[in-house]
Amino acid sequence: MAVRTANDLARAAQRSHDGRAPAEPNDDAFQFACDHVAAELEREGDVAPLVEKLSQARHVMTHLLTQEVPAHLLPHFRELADLVRDMSRRVDASMKEFEAGQLEDAA
Question: What is residue 72's DSSP assignment?
């Protein structure tokens, strides 16, 4: 029996983790958990910080799009990039509406 170092165990765990596919969106337990967390965030008023972070992640996603992404993660990565892009656009549009309203109030 070979003696395994902590580094060997960490590498084996990382290889195991890298090989796991993400949860499928049609998985009942996954969908239930997503709905539950969303309801908790809404109830606790934590939706605004989530929107803020997603909107600010635009530059991170732009950088990550230049990196090599494993094929099994690519569809999920694209969905995340689309979500971040959409959230960022919506926040930008809302900011423009707010600023336009401020200008009208000042006039």
Answer: G
Number of C-beta neighbours around residue 51 at 10 A:
15
CA nearest neighbour of 80 among 91, 93, 69: 69
61, amino acid identity: M
For the record, the structure tokens of 77 come out as 């990565």
Cut 0.70: pTM above it: no
> Quick one: tokens of 54?
């997603």
Per-residue confidence band for 29, with pLDDT thresholds at 50, 70 and 90: confident
Biggest CA–CA distance in the chain, Å, is 81
Structure tokens at 89: 């656009």
Residue with tokens 């732009």: 62
Tokens representing 24 are 């499928």
Residues 25, 1: Cα–Cα separation, whole Å: 41
